[in-house]
Design a protein that fits this description.
The chain is elongated and about 70 Å long. Helices cover 2% and strands 46% of the residues. The protein has 2 domains: 2-53, OB fold (Dihydrolipoamide Acetyltransferase, E2P); 66-176, Nucleic acid-binding proteins (OB fold (Dihydrolipoamide Acetyltransferase, E2P), Beta Barrel). It contains 1 helix and 17 strands. A hairpin with a 2-residue loop joins strand 12 and strand 13 (136-140).
Amino acid sequence: MTKQELVYPGSFLACEEEFMAGKNTYEEDGNVYSSTIGKATLDSGSHEANVDNASKEAKILQSGSIVIGVVSSVKKNAVLIELVEAKHNGEKRIVHNSNAALPVFNISNGFVKSVQEMFRIGDIIKARVFQVTPYGIDLETKSPELGVIKAYGIKSRKPLVLIDGKLRDPVSGDNESRKISTEYILR
């Protein structure tokens, strides 16, 4: 049995070929990582990697978590989001993979004519985690409180102001469309 120094959530422990994920660990892409802060133990007899918890167990991202992120790319059938923070039932969650996708079918309950009408690069959004898989994180914004919480003008890149249900660029005066959250910041 080999003991290591203090490890943190996301710390590499071993390759999956050598050790299986045990207590307070998880497997991702063929490697075993710590899911909490504590002392790592690699048991060569049972071929299991464990972490003895030094504090409360780390809470990882799961379906139903609410996330805040920044739109990094807008594609024809999906929006790519860089996650900034996450919470589940009011408790902060650890985001192992900071990138997520918002597929077009998870944007709205209604028909989405154009993804670019709903989101633009740089918009700050609030979304719910639809599913977490080994391949990535899928989000959804179908509820009224989910969507863009702060947007920037296409021409001026200044924050848009919500006036009478429409987003207006304070510099050019142009109206822009987005999937607006009921919690939009600038009114």
